[in-house]
Design goal:
Blueprint (H helix, E strand, L loop, with lengths): L1 E5 L5 H4 E5 L9 E10 L2 H8 L16 E8 L11 E6 L9 E11 L6 H5 L3 H13 L7 E4 L5 H12 L3 E6 L8 H9 L3 E4 L5 H8 L5 E6 L4 H6 L3 E9 L12 H7 L2 E4 L3 H6 L1 H16 L7 E5 L4 H9 L6 E5 L1
Parallel strand pairs: 7-8, 7-10, 8-9, 10-11, 11-12, 13-14
Antiparallel strand pairs: 1-2, 3-4, 3-6, 3-14, 4-5, 5-6
Helix pairs in contact: 2-12, 4-5, 4-11
């Protein structure tokens, strides 16, 4: 099979090599799939750079989520059959940007019939992250005001849709689009954001205060970090919650805890991957909830780019450079 491999650390366009590798075989509790679609995520970029919390040994294949067709099942696997259309995470070091991949049966889920392959490949990491953030690490409620940073990105886009599905008013902050045309703002509106803020042209702090009559946002969803986090503390509501999702902006901020004390807000971290180890049943429940929402049309990943296997390095570099909108997905 063909697979992209990171042979040294650096920018995706510089370190990815297309290799011919043996077809993988599943272990007793695994399945092998033919990759139908693989969604690009910022952790793929960070792993290429050697900056992610998970650091696979070189060489490795990036790609943390996929939709695939099962072609072989391990001897201990039950409930999954050859021919099933599934989604989930590949079992490293073999990632999703390949023609075939191995998946652990415990984190392999039926792909919703309501979603095509590219959309199904986008339903796992981002949507599970946002569901756990909004429904587990905090409890979003109808009428809440949810401020979502990077609202047109991989995880931010899922937070917008899940926030709307929960009955919240969603304020989405975007970067203004690839060429200043407002493409990212259009994606955020299509996702359902009630108010869209171009951070290059507007001050999101002032917009939040205007929308809420000075009260502030009940929940801030922050996958960016750095200055974005610091400024979010200026518009968080009394007893509000700031969800720390990641640091795509490149700076891991320090949180002045005296400010949280004075303003009575909570700083809540989320490492979604830990739930796969500590509470697999809850991860499966989350997938069932996301499938229900997808089947009712409440969530539907917006796939803006469908690329071929050969185009993976360039696409990951665009993601690294912050010039993508919606989801970028490799399709077979």
């Amino acid at each position: 099979m063909k697979a992209w491999q990171v042979t040294r650390l650096g920018e995706p366009r510089d370190v990815l090599t297309l290799a011919d590798l043996p077809d993988p075989s599943p272990g007793p509790a695994q399945v092998t799939v033919r990759v139908l679609a693989a969604a690009a995520n910022f952790p793929d970029v960070l792993m290429c750079r050697g900056l992610y919390q998970v650091r696979p040994e070189l060489p490795f294949t990036p790609g943390v989520e996929l939709c695939g067709e099962v072609v072989e099942v391990g001897s201990d696997v039950t409930g999954i059959a050859v021919g099933d259309r599934v989604l989930g995470a590949p079992a490293g070091p073999g990632g999703a940007f390949a023609e075939m991949a191995v998946m652990d049966a415990a984190t392999t889920f039926p792909a919703p019939d309501s979603l095509d392959d590219a959309q199904a490949a986008s339903l796992f990491v981002g949507y599970q992250t946002s569901w756990f953030a909004l429904h587990r690490r905090t409890q979003i409620a109808p009428g809440d005001v949810l401020l979502v940073h990077a609202a047109a990105g991989g995880v931010g886009s899922s937070a917008v849709q899940l926030g709307k599905a929960a009955g919240a008013t969603v304020i989405g902050v975007v970067g203004g689009g690839v060429d200043g045309s407002g493409a990212k703002a259009e994606v955020a509106r299509a996702l359902g954001a009630d108010v869209v803020v171009d951070r290059h042209a507007q001050d999101f702090v002032e917009v939040v205060k205007q929308v809420t009559g000075g009260r502030g946002a009940d929940i801030v969803y922050d996958p960016v970090g750095g200055e974005t986090y610091q400024r979010s503390t200026k518009c968080i509501a009394f007893e509000g919650r700031i969800l720390v999702i990641g640091f795509a902006g490149g700076e891991i901020q320090s949180a002045p805890l005296n400010h949280a004390l004075i303003k009575n807000y909570s700083i809540v971290g989320l490492h979604w991957g830990l739930y796969n180890q500590r509470d697999p049943a809850l991860v499966r429940h989350c997938h069932d909830e996301l499938t229900r929402l997808a089947d009712t049309g409440a969530v539907s990943p917006i796939v803006s780019e469908r690329i071929a296997l050969d185009d993976v390095p360039a696409a990951l570099q665009r993601l690294a450079d912050g010039v993508t909108t919606g989801r970028v997905v490799m399709v077979a």
